[in-house]
Write a structure and sequence with these properties.
The protein is an all-alpha fold. The protein has 10 helices and no strands.
Length: 195
Amino acid sequence: MLARLAFLGLTNTFALLRLIPMSNRDKDIEILALRHQIGVLQRQLGDTRVRFSPADRALLAALVHRLPRQILHRLRLLVRPDTILRWHRDLHRRRHARVSRPKRPGRPRTIRSIRQLVLRLAKENPNWGYRRIHGELLVLGLKVAASTVWQILTDASINPAPKRCGCRKPRPCWSTPFARHRPRPRSRQAIITAG
């Protein structure tokens, strides 16, 4: 499409250079002849739509986008003026999307000072897990996701809190009484048959 657009721009530049030495009367005659040809094409096409290539759309939108809407409605175009304005908006939207596309895909890296703070909190408090560190960061006013704290600890090869706190018990230190094995409640079917 880019090569076709460049070719169309180059041919129109030469056409413009050809118009410079012409008098206004000659230009008016050429405009009337072109309008008549467009009218003949519109009569022959009837209800069928004209198919424009993307390069043709871009060139036509670039040529007539500065004209006021009233003049656009008076022109004998093969498409409606609103269509040309939509093509121009599409060109701007694509250009803006291309320019504002991030250079690196994915989530941005965590700030180095936050990484250092997470690692310092983990080393100074070996019985804190990533959730506790995340909570402390929130208290400090730093908005970081809990998964980010976990990822920082994992990347630094820091084990989870139960393995870091140095417990020699058979159960890790995070195993509280409520986490011990309790008998499973009876299933609903067993309750119905027993009742």
